[in-house]
Amino acid sequence: MHDGFWASIRNTTDHQDYFSRIDESDDAIFYNKERFVSHLDSLAMETVVDLIGQLVVEDNPVMLDLMASWDSHIPTRLQSCRITGLGLNETELKNNQVLSDYVIHDLNRDGRLPFSNGSFDVVLNTVSVDYLVNPIAVFREAGRVLKPGGLFLVIFSNRMFPDKAVKIWRESSEEERILLVENIFQETGSFDAPEVFISKGRPRPRDDKYAHWGTPSDPVYAVYAEKPGKTPSRKPRPAILSIMESKMNEGVLEHKKRQIHKTLQCPHCDEKMNKWAVPENPFEATWENEFLYICFNDNCSYYVRGWDHVYRTTSRIASYRFMYNQDKDICSPIPVPSSKALRESIIG
Ligand SMILES: C[S@@+](CC[C@H](N)C(=O)[O-])C[C@H]1O[C@@H](n2cnc3c(N)ncnc32)[C@H](O)[C@@H]1O
Questions:
Q1: Portions of the chain given CATH number 3.40.50.150
Q2: Taking burial as the number of CB atoms within 10 A of a residue's CB, which of 241, 291, 333, 348 is the most buried?
Q3: pTM score > 0.90 for this model?
Q4: CA of 129 to the centre of ligand 1 (A)
């Protein structure tokens, strides 16, 4: 997505084409059928709830769940807040336990939100942005109905109803979709610079109905931004990366690193590291050892937060694993593009 992308397609037939759908019939028809399903696996769902809990720092926020259904993924601490749902299926919305009220409103017929300026502290949009035919108008409206300093949190994954998703979404890679949503935020001119969160490559929960496929847990991506004008008294929203880092007490980490030659345990997750045979001429690096130790635990916090860190610093989808060189007593990261990478050389 190049700079000036929106300017180049605005008011052109390209815009109509990018935001066309296989099923162009009235959305009310498709969503007339209630779907009491979960759109993500349980681990990804937990990540969504956790993310909302971490980013919503207000004590008693007024929230809007945009494109809501029967579950708004609200953490317990926030469940008694005032939450309005906006969606298309009344039976689903009626069964949503956390909603104080709801409206049926088709955003693809009318992108305006039926709420006054500055009504909400938080607007959520979960696994639904791919269905908007005019996302810039809707994001602008989210900005209008937010209070100054309010949060618009857009969460998505890689599953979709393909017939209802817009073409640009269907045809983009996961990385491009992040850029697309960032771009929409920027194009509205209504928000501060958006932040990105990525959770990807973790093992699918064992009890998941697709666990036997061996595919990882559904990825969770979030792009979020504040409306400018936060009051100085409001708590700042935490950087998600630093929340993950703060889970590990630095002193304990250093102690574990000093013991690593005896324990051969990853200091970030305490799992035994695997003995890994150094391939011949690996990446032209000059490792003199025959083998090294690497933590291959897909739930290790070092590896999990690596996805977010690499994306923020290089815009690439990759992470790194914790590696220990026993001959030199040195710890370092080793980059990996996927959960499977490097595993073929595990020897113990
Ligand atoms: C994949 S579901 C996600 C539901 C919910 N946000 C969640 O996290 O489970 C997509 C939702 O978007 C809503 N939706 C789809 N098209 C819409 C439209 N044109 N206007 C308003 N809501 C829409 C549907 O009612 C449906 O609940």
A1: 5-238
A2: 291
A3: no
A4: 9
